[in-house]
Fold each of these.
Amino acid sequence: MMLQGTNLSARYPGAPRLALDAVTCGLEAGRLLAVVGPNGSGKSTLVRALLGLVPLESGTVSLDGRPLGEWSRQDIAAAIGAVSQREETLFSLRVREAVMLGRYPRLGPLAPESAADHDAVRRALERCDAWDLRDRRTDTLSGGEWQRVRVARALAQEPRALLLDEPTAALDIRHEMELFELVHDLVSGGLAGLIVTHELNLSARYADRMILLDGGRVVGAGEPAAVLTDRVLAPVFRWPLAVTPWRDGSPQVVPLKPSEAES
């Protein structure tokens, strides 16, 4: 495993219960892991724990077999690209400048930008269908445009693993599908991928494995067909639903109207 979290337990200050309770997961090159679950189930906390941003009550995180604490923050940033769920734009930059920030783990604080850095920024923007935005200022972007720019910034790091927390939020259907296609292509090219998402149906079609969290605990893990069953999902989401196969065999989840559930 490139990135491994083992028996991770974490609690936020003053919280009565654990935000993560003995969660184990691993990221491998060439494989996409989808982390799903209801609001407040611990999905974002798991991402933060894997990045070393949450104090652990117990458990360990390792990168390339070494404890994460032995790595510098700059080396972690060079190896792992991350897109958080929320981010405030504290000051306005041109889009190309914002994406260039992703090169800093490789540049260092004082090194000049090179042609290779500018090429990496262009490739990242083009892959996220955001090259046409390069001269726009970040405070003029729509929510979906800003999300694509944030993904491009992570790609500009040229990481070996990509952790995405709700990356399709505020995206329309086309860009939502393009993002899953992009992540699929990156993972197929050897990247290790983790995506936190509420998109059960899209993650079922693109992910190699899934983890279903509820109350900070793993209540389902494995291939999508093993996790996305009505027996497993209904008590987690507290709503009646049906699961039916799509033409590629992936399970697709249909929330039911109360009248449909009764019948």
Amino acid sequence: MTKSTLLHLRIPFSFYLLPVFLFACSLSGKLPLVNLILVGIVLHLFLYPASNGYNSYFDKDEESIGGLKKPPTVSKELYWYSLLFDFLAIAIGVFINWQFTVMLLIYGLVSKAYSHPTIRLKKMPFAGWFVAGFFQGYFTFIMVCVGLGNISFQEITSLNIQLPALLSSMLLWGSYPMTQIYQHNEDRKRGDITISLRLGVLGTFHFTAVAFFIATMGFFYFYSQYYSVFHASLYMLFLSPVLLYFGYWYLRSRKNVNNVNYSNTMNLNFISALMMNLYFIGFYFFK
């Protein structure tokens, strides 16, 4: 594997997608250790990197992308490795359970539809936004529950599972446009009319603020109804650094649009992922 291919798989970027996995784990009872490790490995070391690599191969970005400030030139090798990583994810999934394996296959196919020029959902502002948020949020949350294997079908369809699964997507629907906010020029040149490009820079900030507020209120309701007001309030406290940085960045960007860049976007992503990961881990042990 060349260095270029390894970089474009963007394995460290899986840290930013870890909250959905930890959120699902945090609501479980006793976690089966083998399934926990295998599901974590399948998602974060194979499935997500496969999607990253496949997307990078067809995008052939010259400017910054998530997790890569200066993306190197891609080669056909990246395409084949992305398919290999998909295959390995499904192969390991077979040892977990067949339902989880089927969901891995579906996720992989949808991620390809997002990038492949034949369909390229990325070109469709609403469809691309909805599908990305649904599959990285709701679908992945349910997939983790299925993979852990300690929950029945009846429990999966219950409100106390469906609600947090939907909240996972609501967070992503709010935050996803922010991941595209610094890529407007390259997306426009490539003909990818993303939802962020359609909203514009300030529109993206405003959209995310409203969506994030709705999602946060949803989380507050969920924790207060199913656990306690203390857990709900603690969640709000953990997210306060995200709100402060978002407000700080917004005010700076209103003064100077050059502040809408890769570094500030990744800073927001890092703070958000870090605080949610810490909360979900703590919640599991002290709920």
